[in-house]
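So, can you check what follows?
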Amino acid sequence: MVQTRTFGPTTTQKTIQADGTILLESEQPIAEFPQKLTQKLVYWAYVTPDAPFIARRNLAGIWQKLTYAETLRQVESIAQYLLDQKFSGEQTIAILSENSLEHALLALAAVHVGIPYSPISPQYSILSNDFGKLCHTLQALTPKLIFAQNGKIYGRALAKAQELFPEAMLVSVEEGSAVSFTDLTATQCTQAVQRAHEHVTADTVAKILFTSGSTGLPKGVINTQRMWCANLQQITQAFPVMATEPPIFVDWLPWNHTFGGNHNFGLTLYNGGTLYIDDGKPTPKGIEATVENLREISPTAYFNVPRGFEMLIPYLEKEPELRKTFFRNLRFSFYAGASLAQPVWNRLEELARETTGQIVSIITGLGCTESGPSALFANWAGSYSGLLGVPVAGMRVKLVPDGDKLEIRYQGPNVTPGYWRNAEATASVFDEEGFYKTGDAVRFVDEADPNKGLLFDGRIAEDFKLSTGTWVNVGSLKAKVLSAGAPIVQDVVIAGLDKEFVSAILFLNPYACRELASLSPDCSATEAFLHERIQQYIDQLLLTLSKTATGSANRITKAVIALDPPSIDLGEITDKGSLNQRAILKHRATLVEQLYT
């Protein structure tokens, strides 16, 4: 039996225009794709009705699974319930809670009959004190139906939502709630569902995904049916093995983000695979749940953020059986959200080789919520940290000079038409040729050979000049600090605008600090951060970094430890765990002042 290739073609055309801009396109055209996502659900429910589509552990720890046939039946029942509520063109569905079977069913039902829905970050409901971002997103959506998995856990947020929209239906899973989820699934489906599905077009809004709000309040990115389906086809062409070997994913990434919700959830459905919802996450407590799932389920591809891979390594090192299960069917690992430290990358490759006798490829790419998400992939063996790859099939990439950098811009069927009810923001992010302006900077691995791909070169807006007039590349400097400082340094913010030298605000890993300083697990994070051994570690880190510095722009002269964790209410952190450099510098001005006095 001939094994399907894991990776698709990567040959790329490069054209330099008269004005200095550069166009990149894949030589591989995008293949035909569905006009609406749930065409795939209908297809798999007919072709492989008994295959498991999605699963989640119940309270007893047993996997509760839904087959493709069961999923379609429940989606059609829920769709009928939604049609019976007679949504107007101004009304939507808001989902406040985490990944779950009910979340998946409600989302697919809305997509099936053309009612826009929006998964909202659970942190806006659970961790926020002022509900500022929750109120902003709900007011933008004008929801007719608001769902939360648990009416008690999300009680305060639901009460706030009801205050804003008194006529909206509040739905949760528990019996006794105003509207129970079983009321939706018990509805008798009629021909109205099929008629509504037939009226859904490629231009119909499938969902609204809110940005993290790193440059202000979150903006609602419109995701049309075409945009979602096109990108899933582009990703599948980059990884053709998914089309012939139904993928198996064990995944925690939140569906209110494009990585988890569009990419991972969508790829499962698009290719007839199985998604095991991982209720863990890359935290000291959450990683235990993730590892328990990976002891049992062998993924065919594994997706995570860099912090997740870093936290998984100690378990892989000490559990041979876990290693065997994890690597047994694994074709590749994929990271996004930040740069993967090269030491972490190297150790993952070593563990794969020790277990299977060969390296399992680690890859990444580049994209954003506005590109559905995937725009580039480094989908080949021998990749390395920082390599972004080449454009996906059917996408045009434009590189526009901005000072000494190249801003990357996107145009293609997977690119959003704009922001939900925000014409001003929409107009500002497209150039005169209709390319989406990402604000990301890239550079060629080899300007003479575009097939070798692009490298990340920071964010245009994050870079700054020292008082000497020297530009500081924030992205590359952050990657350097995180690589050298792992696992003690969890994240870093670079400072120095109009100053004489570069400095840094360090966010440390309290668990790694306690371990290094031989402290009790019960001691406070502040006590651990201020311990003499941690101070010595940071001093040595700065010394190590200085040895490879070539000038003032890439030498960190001073650093200060942030004793308080980043605040979601202040916009300092997203629920994916990435820091907002601008917000940190704004709200921690006193720390910056310490660095320069």
Summary: The longest helix spans residues 68-84.
